[in-house]
Structure to design on (110 residues):
């Protein structure tokens, strides 16, 4: 069985691009779009970018260098999105295998 990591990494790229460049930082006074004003969208943004937010909060250097701070937030969001997608794909494969075993013709023959 193939690992769900590679498809998750590939799928995380466009999702994080949309999340970062379309949704943007929800607490920004000049939002990129109105998408960040929806509570569910803002919550997922904060959850997926939490490691980057914590790193930015702890590092004066990151706060002083906006581009580096943005790169850290993007990378944190990408990694968290990839981990989340890997988990979802793994659970889907696990459920599909369980259903396949339950519906096997050999099981009904006994």
């Amino acid at each position: 069985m193939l690992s769900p990591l590679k498809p998750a990494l590939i799928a995380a790229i466009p999702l994080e691009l949309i999340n970062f460049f379309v949704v943007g930082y929800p607490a920004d006074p000049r939002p990129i779009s109105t998408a960040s004003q929806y509570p569910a969208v803002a919550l997922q943004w904060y959850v997926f970018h939490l490691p980057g937010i914590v790193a930015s909060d702890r590092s004066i250097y990151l706060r002083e260098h906006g581009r580096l701070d943005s790169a850290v937030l993007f990378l944190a969001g990408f990694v968290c999105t990839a981990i989340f997608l890997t988990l979802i794909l793994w659970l889907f494969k696990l459920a599909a295998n369980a259903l396949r075993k339950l519906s096997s013709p050999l099981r009904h023959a006994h």
DSSP finds six helices and no strands in the chain. The mean pLDDT is 86.
